[in-house]
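Q: What would this chain look like folded?
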Amino acid sequence: MSNQADTFKIAVRKFGPFESAMQKFWDSYCAVSGCTLQLELVIMDLHELYESTITRKGLANGLFDIAHINTDWVYEGYLSQAFEILNPYINTNKPVSFPNGWSKSLLSLQRFGWEVVGLPFHDGPECFIYRKDLFENETEQANYLKQYGKVLEVPQTWEDFHQVAQFFNRPADNLYGSIFACYPDGHNTVFDFCLQLWTRGGSLVDKAGNISINCQPAVDGLDFYRKIVNDKTAVHPQSKDFESVAAGVAFAKGEAAMMINWFGFAGMCEVDANSKVKGKVGVDLLPAAAGKASASLNVYWLYTIAKGSKNKDVAYDFLKFATNAKQDKLLTLEGASAAAFRHGKIRR
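A: My prediction, written as structure tokens:
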């Protein structure tokens, strides 16, 4: 272990639980390993993180030692040789419980042939998040029954979702029916379209495996999505400016009855000191078109080591430490979603 008083730089997705967890991981790691490198967390919003690590080749050039990388970008980063290939490290000193400590669904997108370029950090999936206290309130139930002639319950269809959102939309109380993350960067809106497509029985590809969205489920899904996100009587007015984190924060502040977002934001509502909905949040399957099955999608965050890092051995040693059961549990308690499905008692 080097005793050189230098800087170890980690590119971190801007999100309170990520930031606090990474600092705690590093402090604990240095305490047990004797590492004397000084940590610098470079905290960036989603588009800044992508630009800095991939587009401007910050990983390839060694601007960072480790980076949080979304699986949406991992193929591009692999082609541009941004990442250190982890196989030699894993083969001689594999992480605890690797690979059986993780679901197979969290090990495939960072693997190209036999080459592995990242370890799971934080996972989704997207889900339906709602205010249990509102849905279970007897007055709300009576008013909904009187207004619509049906029982207020967790919506199973998109049409019911829209109706319930309109029912709970009360701008005078700073309460809105639903929140969407519509920040115009082509990120969550793409996911939302896919969810609309799949929950209507559609597919992104045809039988030959080619991209094809010229189908009725795509038309219906896009039409519904366009309609609801522009419905001021159902959706938080800042949705057009929200990416997923900002949408999650607004929900934690008690500003919406329902939200389509990542599972981790439900956990954040339980541990964030500023949350106004602690103990009031429920999670369920996403709505679907009538007669169709619910669906979600597999997008997750990775730890990657920069190809240009001068501290690769330290970086891998730290990743081994950060992905053990204790740190994985800490990540959850900070308000993110642990990636290990099978580590010890951390099971879902």
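The longest helix spans residues 16-33.
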